[in-house]
Amino acid sequence: MIVLVLLGVVVLAVGGCVCAVWAERGGPRWVRAVAGVTLALGQLLRQADRNRRRGLNSGNSNNNGNGGNAGGD
Predict the structure, then answer these.
(1) CA–CA–CA angle 43, 48, 51 (5° rounding)
(2) Among 19, 26, 45, 57, which residue's CB has the most CB atoms within a 10 Å radius?
(3) Which of 30, 35, 10, 39 lies closest to 20 in space, CA to CA?
């Protein structure tokens, strides 16, 4: 079952990428709409990843007062 879900996600991602390329070449209105949704979701995922990484880095920056460097150089 999980394989089918993952396969569906991959198919949607590839389809969105195809629509983005087609929209750049002047595809129909529905292709431009799908491309816009795909690009917006990609931007949201990149922003979420940046925020997640920033949160991880800020949590480790004050370990033992030496910026996270366990060796104490």
Answers:
(1) 125
(2) 19
(3) 35
